[in-house]
Amino acid sequence: MTDLTTSPTTDPATAAGAGPAHDILLFDMFGVIARHQSEDGRARLAATAGVPDSLFWDAYWGSRQPYDRGDIAGPAYWRQVADALGADFGPARIARLIEADIASWSAVDDSMVALIEELAAAGRPIALLSNIPEELAAHYEERHTWLRHFRVRAFSCRIGHAKPEPGAYRWCLAALGTEPERVLFIDDRGDNITAAEASGVRGHLFTTPARLRDALRLSA
Fold first, then answer.
1. pLDDT single digits (tens) 108-163
2. According to CATH, where is 3.40.50.1000 located in the chain?
3. Cα torsion for 104, 106, 110, 111, to the nearest 10°?
4. DSSP per-residue letters across 12-41
5. pLDDT the model gives residue 218
6. Cα dihedral 103, 105, 111, 117 sign
7. 12-35+108-216: what CATH class?
8. Which residues, 6+ apart, have CB-to-CB distance to 215 below 8 Å?
C-alpha cells in the first residue's frame, strides 16, 4: 500500500538532531520497529500444526517468500506448508495457524515506536519497507496508529516484491520520487542491506535503538 502525504511542515534541516536535510529514512519493520517471533509464539505455531518443531520451520520458511510477496493468500500458503510436511491441514486448523502466526509477529519495540514518533514530530521524512503477508499487514493497520507517519508504506504483499529482490527497492524509490542516494535504508539483515546498496541506496545495519540514534545524531 502506498500512502503518499504532503511535505512535512517542519524543515528537517532545522530540526534538532535531524541529520542531513536530504535524508529519507526507509525503515524495515520486523527486527527493527517490531520484534521477531517470540519463543512462545514459535512453540504455539508448531503445536498448532501438530508436528515436531524440528520439522516445522523448514516447511514454514520454504514458501514464505511467495506469501510475503502476495503471490498466494494465507490458506494456500498453509496448504503448501502442509504438503511440505506430508500433513493435511483442514480449514479450521488453517484458520488457527493464521491466527497463531499473526500473534507470533505482533510485538513491537516501544523504544523504536517512540523514535518513529520523534522523527515524525521533527518533520523528518520516513518510509517503510516490510516483508509482510496480507493478514499480518491488516492486523498492524488495525492496531498501530504510528503507521500513519510513514509517507510511503511498502508492504511486500501489496507491491509484488519482497526483500532482498531489487524490485522492492525500485518500487520504494519510484513511490518516494527521489534519487537512491537520498535514502538511508535501516534493516537488521545484512542481505537486505547489500541488496539496497546495490540499488544505490545507503544502508544502516540495525543492531540497537541506541546505535541507530547515534547514527542519526539523535539524543537518547
1. 999 999 999 999 999 999 999 999 999 999 999 999 999 999 999 999 999 999 99
2. 12-35+108-216
3. 70
4. GGGSTT---TT-EEEE--BTTTBPPPPHHH
5. 80
6. negative
7. alpha beta
8. 204
| 6 pLDDT above the threshold of 70 | no
Q: Which residues, 6+ apart, have CB-to-CB distance to 95 below 8 Å?
A: none
Grid coordinates representing 19? 541529520
pTM tops 0.90 = no
Cα separation, 194 vs 88, whole angstroms:
38
CA pair distance 14, 122, nearest whole angstrom: 9
pLDDT digits (tens, 9 = 90+) for 40-85: 999 999 999 999 998 999 999 999 999 999 999 999 999 999 999 9
Q: Where are the alpha helices (DSSP H) in the chain?
A: 39-49, 53-62, 64-69, 74-85, 91-104, 110-121, 134-143, 156-159, 166-176, 190-198, 209-216
Q: Residue 16 CB: number of other CB atoms within 10 A? A: 8
- Are 208 and 220 in contact, with CB atoms under 8 Å apart? no
Q: Please report where in the chains the cell 504483499 appears, as a residue.
A: 157
Say if CB 103 and CB 128 are below 8 A apart: no
